Amino acid sequence: MAQDHRLPAQRFELKYLIDETITPGIRDFVSCHLELDEYGVGWPDLAYSVHTLYLDSDDLRTYEASTNGTKNRFKLRLRYYDDNPLAPVFFEIKARQDNCIIKQRCPVHREAVPLLIAGQLPDAGHIFSKEVRHLITLQKFNLLQHQLNARPKVHNHYFREAWASPYDNALRVTIDRRVEIEPYFRADAVTKMSNPIRVYPGIVILELKFGLRFPDWMRELVQRFHLMQFSASKYCEGVLLLGEHHFHDGERAFDWEGWSPRERESAFAAAKSAGTMIDL
Q1: Residue in 278, 220, 169, 206 with CA at minimum distance from that of residue 14
Q2: Rounded to 5 degrees, what angle do the CA atoms 200, 84, 108 make?
Q3: 187-231 pLDDT, tens per residue?
Q4: Distance CA 278, CA 280 (A)
Q5: Is 223 helix (H, G, I), strand (E, B) or coil?
Q6: Does the domain spanning 12-274 belong to CATH 3.90.1520.10?
Q7: What is the DSSP letter of 170?
Q8: Rounded to an integer, what is the distance from CA 175 to the centroid of its chain?
Q9: What angle do CA 157, 48, 196 make, to 5 degrees?
């Protein structure tokens, strides 16, 4: 599935953790203002599959920046939607400056992914687009990756129902379900998961995304359904769930396959009781 890689230069994102039972009402409300994302048409729950591979340093500097609430921070990640060898893999830099989200992404040929993650300098032959801005984004990704000595840490998967404005590329509502993660340390855009753990079990993540102005109808949506804003980072919550010490030394320190069901259950229970939610 090839996804549109046009993104607004900056926007704001508000996140809400909600119960699945109220999503039909939210869908009905949102559909009066936005159109269903074309990639959700025909799928159960109107949702398409999203995969993300997060890169971080061995001392987890981007994770620590989020948990410490650093105002200006970023994440490095690969986003893709299926295992089609002809479909692009998007190299993304998601940055937060104060409360504003700035996202840059570049569509890359799948066969180039291992080379680029290994540190090879990017060139125009690696990417789908001929736009200079995409090559610049990939070069910036490469620079940040080298500065951090970042490498793959976590594979994340979920199903996204998305609603968007045909007029304003910054205006978007997403509903993310069945979020799951597992450690992953290899340089490829994997889609299969071996032993994932559910993040936010039984909870749906609602995100309201907008430009400089919070639309009146979004405010009405929040009030009508009594929504309470939360910070929620799928990557950080996953690392917290599994225990950050397992990721400091990469694959050598994390024998995920060797965990027993009881160990997995204990890790999940500990993270759930902590109740910590981290943004970006």
Answers
A1: 206
A2: 85
A3: 999 999 998 999 988 899 999 999 989 999 999 999 999 999 988
A4: 7
A5: helix
A6: no
A7: T
A8: 13
A9: 20
